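Here we describe the complex-level prediction in full. Unlike the single-chain runs in Section 2.1, the two entities below were treated as one system.
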Amino acid sequence: MKQSELFTKTVRENPKDEQSINAKLLIRGGFIDKLTRGVYSYLPMGLKVIKKIENIIRQEMNRIGGQEVLLPALHPKENWEKTGRWNVEEMFKLKGRDKREYSLGWTHEEIFTPLLQKFVSSYKDLPVFTYQIQDKFRDELRAKSGLLRGIEFLMKDMYSFHADEKDLDNFYEKVKQAYFQIFKRCGLEKETFLTYASGGTFSKYSHEFQTITSYGEDIIYLCDKCNLGINKEIIKEVKNSCPQCGNKDLRQMKSIEVGNIFKLKDKYSAPFNFKFKGKDGKEELVLMGCYGIGLGRLMGAVVEIHNDENGIIWTDEVYPFKVHILSLEEESSVKKEAEKLYAELKDKGIETLYDDRDKSAGEKFADADLIGIPYRIVVSRKTLESKSVEIKKRDESNAKLVNLQDILNYVR
Amino acid sequence: MKQSELFTKTVRENPKDEQSINAKLLIRGGFIDKLTRGVYSYLPMGLKVIKKIENIIRQEMNRIGGQEVLLPALHPKENWEKTGRWNVEEMFKLKGRDKREYSLGWTHEEIFTPLLQKFVSSYKDLPVFTYQIQDKFRDELRAKSGLLRGIEFLMKDMYSFHADEKDLDNFYEKVKQAYFQIFKRCGLEKETFLTYASGGTFSKYSHEFQTITSYGEDIIYLCDKCNLGINKEIIKEVKNSCPQCGNKDLRQMKSIEVGNIFKLKDKYSAPFNFKFKGKDGKEELVLMGCYGIGLGRLMGAVVEIHNDENGIIWTDEVYPFKVHILSLEEESSVKKEAEKLYAELKDKGIETLYDDRDKSAGEKFADADLIGIPYRIVVSRKTLESKSVEIKKRDESNAKLVNLQDILNYVR
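The structure predicted for the assembly as a whole is:
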């Protein structure tokens, strides 16, 4: 895309009403816009980033057998009364003109469970793994960290349905691995830790994936020996020692929860009386697991981790464009070469932003750093003298001259 | 995908609470599920169809220069008060715990206009064309036609911003052509007509795209001479004659509105005081157009038009899978060949549903007709005797024997 055609513009000053790094940089770079507290719009480059994250998540969910669906955000009261969750404070409620009451979905157990109940009647129909990538709403008083805690937010939520606990346990481990793969592909491998948290009614612990960042709202204790995190909420319960290896030398860190997985067992199948006929002909309650990742939150976490004083540093698989071409002079021969290169990269399917604007070199460099595209290619009179361009990776400090013919070897 | 793994199942009986063809067939085929009046879930095959439609729309919007964004569904009251539309009856309203009032978006002029105002200040920043594919909510008392009229529904809404009327007029014509292209690619070319409708405050007429179907809720008068539609609401105003060619011989038809386009001019830029500096340095109001297509409604319209007594007939570009393989016997040699073919088609990137279930031939044929995948391939002992399979297009009545080696020539 030509940058002159992009309707967003970068901003030098930090927004006054944002404290978090992710909100400041994403707004200044033109990725998102704040409509109101906790509610953001994804602008063209922001949406491209979200789509990258969405595709990574989709690939990994499909790989473990997930079937994608799309459920509504508007829920009838009856579904939530069944499970006794109609009065959850964070749930938005509204009334229709027909006097019926609805809520806006902040999670979807109450919708997935009776939906699957329509199709599953025998052990032969199990297991089922199904997920959606969908807009959620939470009446959140603490929304203040940009994309890290939204009132409206995109989420991937998967629900699994099983005939027995062993099958649930097996799949639960598969999801754990898939989640690590997702965080790795997003560039958060080093900072993200499986974390024990409070388990609720049925399990001793649930599991969170916590990414260490100074702007995190959670506190975890990290075991340096086995790399397990322990959420502060259970640190007394585990007597200040790692429940996995016994180590007592734990480091307290701030972190942000980028994913969570739960064994629900029959918590939601029971109120809906969702049963299946087993091999022995006996009816039993279906067992469930649920597995969440917030897409916007993940995008925010990537920015919190990968930035420097000049802007964002997008990662290998998460970026708005892969290559950013800057043509430095107005001179027509330079523009011509830059255009040619832009056409060539586009032709090869390499997502490229081409800064063709009538701006100073300084402004173009500053914008490129702020926007944070992985590869910056500078085309100027000087580089063209040696039939070359200057390529610099956003996370490296040195640029190198590369012959025009060799560019694809660098950016592909 | 193997059909044995698909969690949905087909249903023989029509749902009791649905009157429209689209709802009956889509529910029976396992494409959608009704959560409550006007609110549907997209199940795996339904979501695949929606994604096809989404991609067609996205391609055509990008082709005319559209920049995709994603705006929130939750809107602060203030935006809607500015334009005097806070009291629109069809708008859902809700209150947060912080006592602030919100509405759920049923259209997005009130959000796009102030957003673009942040980036556009000069004639050099214009025109801008921006769109989203997003979930909308309308407190609809008439929701009763399946996907044709939803309370929650997916919509593509584009908004264009211009410096002068000529530019708006030019782009408006481009959108018209893009819309025809979308309806053509969805298989609705023959049945869809540009229709004059009431124009609102600023234009004499607005334009709708109406698809002729007996389940339509609209009534249009069709001019056989020039193929223009006239919405009933303005038929008196145009004195029962075609406003384009003067013909008085008009046919009354039932139809469904699959798209609409509006010249908004300064209707929304004025209340937000959204101005730009012109070439002469004078400040002027930005002119706007808006352009909508409902994705679910389009899917519903495709089903209303393309079906027979046995089920849905998906079109060339809109389908859940392109090929449906049916293996008819439990015999291992037949299964082996069917599996091999399935693997081969998957490998070539051809989306294939493979009916590997332990069901009778009759059931498999009935399901294939109901689901309506464009190409049905039958693998049986008999066809394999001549090293062949039987290929039948869903919209044709005769099957033909095709050599195993030639299959790709037929389905690619």
